[in-house]
């Protein structure tokens, strides 16, 4: 119980600090979002509307910073995340709702695929240590060091523009109304294949390297020697003894990578 209490206090403090910094940073910077919005719409917004915008965005100069801070927390607890300047002052919750299913579908599937493929390849490479299969490790590691946006641009230039194998943008064809038909599902898969492939290729290196290193450690354990001495097939020793035990740290890393699903591929 003490452990859970300490962790709870730590996470609550972290959440408070993150939210407080998120509140203070825009107010410490020069200018404010409302002023930037007014510059883009010069002559189309009256002074009264401008003051209403400042009130709407919690920038009312008649309130102290403390009052604005308390209002900020009250809005968060009520589920109001504010308005989006880039989406015509639409509620932020609606913007998130429209983007979240596509993000989870694309990045979630790509993360699971990269974990399964990378872990399987890492187990095989570790099992055949010292063979030509080791060459895959530096190759995969190289791609994992390439910036996502650069790899995406190269993929679009080669596979979309030059070869025409994949669409270069959007989640489905222009003019298509989202539905549950096979045609629409096919369009979504076709449009999502290239970014998913880019994410998988860029993240394979970590999974392969991590699993290979754990396999090298596990293969020196006594129970592996005993399993081989019993006459078990190499395939059974690999997947039921070595890989199963080497997989445990990979599962922890996979759990941590789930946060990447909604935060790590904005550009992609």
UniProtKB/TrEMBL annotation:
Give TM regions.
9-29, 102-127, 148-168, 188-209, 246-267
* This protein's name: Putative ABC transporter permease protein
Q: Which Pfam families match?
A: BPD_transp_1
| Family statement drawn from the similarity comment of this UniProt entry | Belongs to the binding-protein-dependent transport system permease family.
Got a GO cellular component term for this one? plasma membrane
Q: Which SUPFAM superfamilies match?
A: MetI-like
Membrane topology is: Multi-pass membrane protein
Which biological process terms from the Gene Ontology are attached to this UniProt entry? Answer: transmembrane transport
Q: Which InterPro entries does this entry report, sorted A to Z? A: MetI-like, MetI-like_sf
Which organism is this protein's natural source?
Kineosphaera limosa NBRC 100340
Q: What are the residue boundaries of the ABC transmembrane type-1 domain, all occurrences included?
A: 100-268
